[in-house]
Amino acid sequence: MPAAPELSSPPPVSPALNAPVATVRWTRRLAVGSVLGLIVLGLAWELWLAPLRPGGSWWVLKVLPLTLPLSGLLRHRMYTYRWLSLLVWLYFTEGVVRATSEQGLSAWLAGIEVLLCLLLFVACAAHVRQRLKAAGKEAVAADAARHAEEATSPARTQP
């Protein structure tokens, strides 16, 4: 009877190769945490802590758009990280305006919102950059070619 083939352990992975994976994991956690922080802050701010009107305000609805990217962030969708890095500036702007125009607790909450927005932007930018870097030059070239093709393709006309 032939001897069973030996199962060998996988070759050791150098720490340099693990660094991109660890960075992507870390930026994903930071992005998800920042989005969840913005959602919780928005709900608490507009319902209980410092609402514009006593008893809560309709401004609480501002957190609804923040629930949309959660699925894409958890599924590692690069497109979600890209558009979320643009959406976050609306919340940043609101935070800056309210931090400079309001006083007391509301100004502090606005400062926290600004900080969470900056963390979210940095996490999204670092995530996209690290994933593109890890994918290699071929992926970047393919992405650029796809965008160039979309830009030069004739628009569809409807009859």
Account of the protein in words:
- With 159 residues, the protein is mainly α.
- The chain has one domain.
- It is built from 6 helices and no strands.
- It has helices at residues 15-49, 64-67, 69-74, 78-101, 105-135, 137-152.
- It is elongated.
- The chain crosses the membrane at residues 30-50, 56-74, 81-99, 105-128.
- Keywords: Membrane, Transmembrane, Transmembrane helix.
- It comes from Hydrogenophaga electricum.
- This is DUF2069 domain-containing protein.
- InterPro entries: DUF2069_membrane.
- The oligomerization state is single chain
Total strands: 0
User: Could you say which overall geometry the principal axes of the C-alpha atoms support?
Assistant: elongated
Q: Give the DSSP E fraction (strand runs of 2 or more residues).
A: under 5%
Task: Report the C-alpha radius of gyration, rounded.
Answer: 22 Å
Q: How confident overall, as mean pLDDT?
A: 84
The H/E string reads HHHHHH
Structural class: mainly alpha
Largest sheet: none
Which parts are unreliable, with pLDDT below 50 for 5 consecutive residues or more? 8-17
| Number of domains as seen in the coordinates | 1
User: What share of the residues lie within helices?
Assistant: over 70%
What is the overall number of helices? 6
The end-to-end distance, rounded to whole angstroms, is 73 Å
